[in-house]
Amino acid sequence: MLSRLSRPRALAVCALPLVVLLATAAFAPLPFSVAQPGMTANVLGDNQGAPVITISGAPVRDTSGQLRMTTIEATGPDARIMLGDVLDGWFRTDQAIMPRDAVYPSGESTKEIERHNTEQMEDSQDAATQAALAYLKLGEDDVEVTLKLADVGGPSAGLLFSLGIVDKLDGHGAGGDLTGGRTIAGTGTIDADGKVGAVGGVALKTQAARRDGATVFLVPKNECSDAKSELPKGLRLVPVTTLKGAVSALVALEKGKGPVPGC
């Protein structure tokens, strides 16, 4: 025999699975990482007591201004991210909630991830050197470039490495600084042909850049919308697709001549 439940009792029965689900979510770790603006480093200067860029085999210029690569900091792959952390991050502009698999390769240990990030950084440095020397029409057999940046992994500093090499060797091409004395920040991968690629986390990187004094931010063109989403006041976005385009934009900005692209 079936009996009919009263409306309050029926609602209580239907709501019970949802209550159990929410209670479980509240106390169980979730597959997310919490990211926030990270450190920045001036590739034209020193990092932890050592020059970021060292060049031999060609005259090197004294530079002014700064070219700051930017990073994000994310909770580790083994961190316990709870429902409260996720809800808090969704309502903050200085944090982002990202799927853990989008930050760290799934199925890899912390040491494997660190090794992977180190390899990506080394590959990025090689590509950045090749792109810069090719842009300047200098041979790798004649010019030796060493790049050193402690405690940073991944490929996203490639563009700034290349620009730093160009500035140290050639400036804006007519005796002046590529930066125009400004603090320029940015992000972007680069390949040996000088093509700039997307990196992710640009909205947080713009905040790190402005915090550390930048007034101009170079961003991969197809990430303009993300960069604009939480753009700090006083920071100008300049979209780029190639090393040549990035140099041209900075020269136009420094000399006040020619168009400077915008997002």
TrEMBL record:
InterPro entries tied to this protein: Lon_proteolytic (IPR008269), Ribosomal_Su5_D2-typ_SF (IPR020568), Ribsml_uS5_D2-typ_fold_subgr (IPR014721)
Top-level taxon of origin: Bacteria
All residue ranges annotated as the Lon proteolytic domain in the record: 154-236
Pfam families assigned to the protein according to its UniProt record, in alphabetical order: Lon_C
Keyword Signal assigned: yes
Alphabetically ordered keywords of this record: Signal
Signal peptide stretch: 1-28
Record protein name field: PDZ domain-containing protein
Native source species: Streptomyces achromogenes
